[in-house]
Structures are given as C-alpha cells and as structure tokens.
Amino acid sequence: MRKAPRQQRSRVTVDAIVEAATRVLARRGWARFTTNEIAAVAGVSVGSLYQYFPDKLAIAEAIRQRHLDEVLAALGRCDEEGDPAATFPRRVERFVDGVIAAHSVDQALHRVLVDEVPLAARSSYPEFEAEYQRRYRALVAESRGQAERESADADIAARMLSSAVEGAVHSAARRGDLDAPAMRSELVRLVLAYLSDRRRTD
Q1: 1-54: CATH homologous superfamily?
Q2: Among 73, 91, 72, 74, which residue's Cα sits nearest to residue 82?
Q3: Nearest-5° angle of CA 16, CA 132, CA 141?
Q4: Interval 11-53: pLDDT, tens
Q5: Does domain 64-201 have CATH number 2.60.120?
Q6: Do 43 and 21 meet the contact criterion of CB atoms below 8 Å apart?
Q7: In angstroms, rounded to a whole number, what is the distance separating the alpha carbons of residues 17 and 12?
Q8: Which of 99, 60, 119 is nearest to 190 (CA)?
Q9: Whole-prediction pTM value?
Q10: Domains of the chain: which residue ranges?
C-alpha cells in the first residue's frame, strides 16, 4: 500500500475499496480490472483510491492477503469445531473440509487470482506461509503419533502434502467441481494414503 490507513474513516475507505475491487475482479477478470470501475463501485474518487494504492496490482495483492487470511481462518474453525478425541481419519476429513471451505468462498475470484493476476510469490507473505505449513506439519506428526516438532523430513513432507492438496483443490476450482462429494472423498483418500505410506516406510 502507498499509505497505511490510521484513522477509522480511512480504514473504512480502504475496506470499501478492497471489497469493491474483490467484486470487480471476480466479475470482470484481470484484463478488464480498472481503478476507475473500482472507485465507482466503492463510491470513492479515483484520487482517494490512489492515496492508498499506487496501481491495480497493489489492490490485487490486498485482495490476496484477505484471501490468505480467510484460508487460515477456515482451517482454524475446523480445528475449533472438531472433537479433540476424534480418530486420525476424522481429523484428516476436518482438515480437508477446511481447505475446501477456504477455497469455496468465491471460486470465480479464486480462479482469477490463481490463473490471471501476476501476483508476487506467496513467499512474500512469510507469516501466512509459516502458519500454513505449520498446520500441515502438525498433520504429518500426528499421523505418526508424535507431537509436532521441527525436522527436515517433516518440513519436506508438509510441503509435498500441501502442494498435492493445493494442486488438486485449484484444479477442482477451475473445473467447478470443488463442492462435489466425490472430490472431498478422493482428497481425503489422497492425504491418508500419503501419510499411511510414509508411516510404513519410516
């Protein structure tokens, strides 16, 4: 952002801009995503928009940051709502439900963010990436009946698993079948098969 909003009024303005931009981006796609339309939908002047964002790519980055926050929130809700005494397969089901829920909020927007917008590498959001990978690492450790711990093997396994799950979820979102029950079942099977095989060969 060009300028961080400090007062309540400026925070409301930035929220309105990002909310409007989210709707415009999902509906129009990146090629027809313009600051003029964003300002009109948000009910602010283009000058006000440029006070906070230097260009439309900066706005898209703000949209993605909110999306990443929603991903973590969805995964967190699955943990909070689950039975702590649940079996490991049930724990995996809850985890998969969280991933699917996070990507189902606005599938049209997600497709544009993944396929069209020239965003910076996700590693530019180190807090998100660290927390996201921590959740996968915890799942890897739990599959072996261990407490979460730092290790090179666990880190690699967590990255492999997250890459496989994200690839499957993104492909399903592009096809429009992310909400299909069969998709959920196969994703749960994929995670359990990977972790089970890894446990046998350790």
Answers
A1: Homeodomain-like (1.10.10.60)
A2: 91
A3: 160
A4: 899 999 999 999 999 999 999 999 999 999 999 999 999 999 9
A5: no
A6: no
A7: 9
A8: 99
A9: 0.76
A10: 1-54, 64-201
